[in-house]
Amino acid sequence: MSREIRLNAFDMNCVGHIQQGLWTHPRDQSTRYTDIHYWMELARKLEAGLFDGVFFADVLGAYDVYGGGVDATLRGAVQLPVNDPSLVIPAMAAATRHLGFGVTCNLTYEPPFSFARRMSTLDHLTGGRIGWNIVTGYLDSAARATGLSGQMAHDDRYDLADEYMSLVYKFWEGSWEDGAVRKDRAARVYADPSKVHRVVHDGRQYKVDALHLCEPSPQRTPVLYQAGASTRGRQFAATHAECVFVNGQSMSGVKAIVDDIRALAVKFGRQAQDVKVFMGATVVTGRTEAEAREKFEDYKRHVDVEAALAHASASMGIDFAKYGMDEPVQTDKSQAIVSNVEAMTRSAGPTWTKRKLIEQMVLGSRQQPMVGSPGQIADQLIAWSEQAGVDGFNLSRTVTPECFEDFIELVVPVLQERGVYKTAYADGVYREKLFGRARLPATHAAAAYRAGAGVPGCERGGNDR
């Protein structure tokens, strides 16, 4: 029997997300992003389509690499303006019962103490449906916005992230024991002080002495997403991530990444099935192949090439405005998303040009769209699942919400007929729906920080020192 395909809607609390320029399409509603009802409507649509979740991208800072400024970014609404995605989640959760929420939060610029509280709060308010996409950032503009002269080197950011993770695990898993919350009205005891512990941490990057302010949430630790496909990123994912987001390239290339991450996870004492891989996908479909092709050509007329270059310049750390169309691009000094540069080099060769890049951005991004009838789309998704080993897909929006409505109405029934997509939600919290358990397993790195695990860093609460 084929594995069950998982689906997330890949979105962002902004106008122009991945497919640059499509916000100008007359049927696109992304300019409603400041309207809470827009997000609630989307949540209901996705839950009706039995989507596992909505995966929110986010970015701190502005895309100011292209041309050395933000003019092209502002004209094309290239993830600017952009609002905080975490603030729309409670409303979306209130409109649904099962839909999960993966939210991107940059750990580099936020103290672990306050961040741990926000995630626990969201997990409580959603009834255990929150996930965290762990990112370390890639924009110098974000570093400057938070008082730094520039961002850390790529691999150094992951070293910082490893320490950060140990701290939030201490808050989520170790500060409050199971059974600490008594809610005993008669005895006038809400929480048992002997089962609440201070987190004491003296590390290279962080010094902390604090209780976690939240009682244990349904999942304790949110479902952990991570999107790094570089060598260092894969090591981090194999240690921490439950769900890994990869961008599609060749099927063999994706399979190599998937196999490598799972092999590393096993090396680190985890089970291969403890890691689910979601591949980014852009789908344009219609009732027939001809209808899908017609829609695709319609969408292409709204692509903004300059906006796409502004986005690519920031994500690759390369100012493409400095290059002629056929001038070889220098790629050896990027501190942005290294895996994006590596992927472009794999697809276009060691010496590539701005023209080659533009040729790949057929819908305003480098993500090659799947275009076809529902059956043809289902064939492709199943092939990726079976041959590359991916567990599911982050479906990038094109013209919204039309793209999700088309997929739900046309493709989902075909996937269900072929036995690779659920016909009803399973019970339980987000992690339970994905993995069959509410809490992280004992083989995960976070388990070492649970009360009684013997790892230094958590001391009894109250006034005891």
TrEMBL record:
Residues 25-391 form the Luciferase-like domain. InterPro entries: Diverse_substr_monoxygenases, Luciferase-like_dom, Luciferase-like_sf, NTA_MOA. Keywords: Flavoprotein, FMN, Monooxygenase, Oxidoreductase. It comes from the Bacteria. Gene3D superfamilies: Luciferase-like domain. The keyword Oxidoreductase applies. SUPFAM superfamilies: Bacterial luciferase-like. One of its GO terms (molecular function) is monooxygenase activity. FMN binds at D58, T104, H154, Y158, S230. The keyword Glycoprotein does not apply. Belongs to the NtaA/SnaA/DszA monooxygenase family. This is N5,N10-methylene tetrahydromethanopterin reductase. It comes from Bordetella genomosp. 11.
